[in-house]
Amino acid sequence: MGASVKDAETHFIGLVCRPADEAQKRLGDVVCVSRGPAGCPVARCGAESPIPTYGGVPLNSATFYFGGDKLHSIMLSIKPDDANQLIESIRLKFGDPASDDRTPVQNRMGATFEQREAVWMVAGTRIKVSRYTNSIERGLATITAPGALDHMKANQPSREKRLGDM
Description:
- By secondary structure, this protein is α+β, with helices and mostly antiparallel strands.
- The chain is 20% helix and 36% strand.
């Protein structure tokens, strides 16, 4: 955390960076998305393009958020079936999570699944792995530096403004 946009572009092949749009401004001023060497999104890259991994888990995508030209948040999209492997990999590196919740979730068809969310706090940085996000087809890992939460609060639209936009 804390790397500059230029540092990230140097270390990640095919990283595409742009100013954040209005919906993303609460997460950062600049957004960078991981793409394969041929310019294709990570989720659609073929065998000729290496798929980035984190903790040995292949990523569907990686999005980096910068505030004031400093990396402060990363979102890694993963397959839900890979969540347990990623949690174990992070546990081996940083120890047991501060919380590891398992709760049943139900989809619109009535099928139930076990949601798992594990959270670590490492030197003020929060690492969170969720088996499911808003879909049973996507898991998510987030790495959030301490300053990111302050940035998010400062750039959160007021409730009054959001309701007025309706």
